[in-house]
Amino acid sequence: MATNSSARGRDGGRGIGRDVGRSVGRGIGRDVGHKPIEPNEPNQPIEPNQPKQRPTHPAARLALLIRNYPHRNPVTFAYLLAVCTGLLVLSRLLPGHTADHLKIAISTNPHNLAHRPVLVLLASPLFAATDSGLISHLLIIGGGVGVCMAALERRFGAVRTMALFLLANAIATVVATSVAAAAIHSGRYPARWWDGYDYGISYGVLAIAAAVTPLVPKRLRWLWAVAVFAYPFASADWFGLLPNFATIGHETAAAFGLAASFHLVRLSPARLSPAHPSPAHPSPAHISRRDAA
Fold it and tell me: CB neighbours of 178 closer than 8 A, spacing ≥ 6?
């Protein structure tokens, strides 16, 4: 059994307006909308409402972004809390042997996927790997989820973003695990991978990173896409011409995320066109899954 694992691991709320300018009761009416002007009181000019000025200092702007983040990205913020909580539970709160049993229970290895597929497909992307370093966690959780997922949520909406994440994770897992099962039976993959550790958030995160491609400045899109697709091969293990199954899963997730994002762009082109901004709604690495060896 493998003993190492790694992470795979709107604004637009509508206010309720009320007209409180005049209150008229039965038999008794009173106008509460205007202050009566005294005869000797000069008329005061009415100044138009001035728009709030955005802070210009970088620290102030960062503080404003952090303060508004939960409101602008509610689903991403909730998922960030869930992933961070899961990481804390696995790495700090549970005893070692209990944490190991939980990791095996949520792993999407061939054994678990054959016996309880729905449970592991839903539970696995809630837990980032505990053996990744701080920089890895910052890039995967902070960059992949906190930045890329939030950008998709603001552009395409929370439902479409989470649907993309979950579908990519499920499809990539099924493809990668099917390859793993066949390769294990043929002797190309180690037999211990059959029921070993295989959990994390990186399949979904890589799909999200690829889905951000249409939102990247046009001149940099191809570089971004190449980087997303090339990254899994940086740490791939090879068995002849066959890479480890996690690499296959990552490539599958990235392809799905990229294709889905351009489909979403066609569904909502106006939201992505900088040439026609809406006055009411102005336009605003290191990703790993697990070491299967």
Answer: none
Nearest alpha-carbon partner for 258 in 222, 213, 205? 213
Rounded to whole angstroms, what are the CA distances from 246 to 178, 193, 200, 256? 11, 11, 11, 15
| Euclidean distance between CA atoms 83 and 125, whole angstroms | 8
pLDDT score at 63: 83
Chain position carrying tokens 């897992």: 173
Cα(281)–Cα(275) distance, rounded to whole angstroms? 14
Fill in the amino acid letter for 119. L
Q: Is the pLDDT of residue 278 over 70?
A: no
Give the percent of the chain with pLDDT over 90.
Answer: 57
What pLDDT, on the 0 to 100 scale, is given for residue 8?
46
pLDDT over 70 (residue 182): yes
Of 38-47, 55-64, 223-232, 277-286, the one with minimum mean pLDDT is 277-286
3-state secondary structure of 226: helix
pLDDT at 217: 93
Structure-block tokens of residue 170: 């499920």
Residue 23 has phi, psi (to 5 degrees) of: -120, 120
Q: Where in the chain are the domains?
A: 69-272
Q: Which residue has the tokens 């792993």?
A: 107
The bridge status of strand 238-239 relative to strand 29-30 is unpaired
Domain topology for 69-272? Rhomboid-like fold (1.20.1540)
Closest of 285, 180, 293 to residue 234, by C-alpha: 285
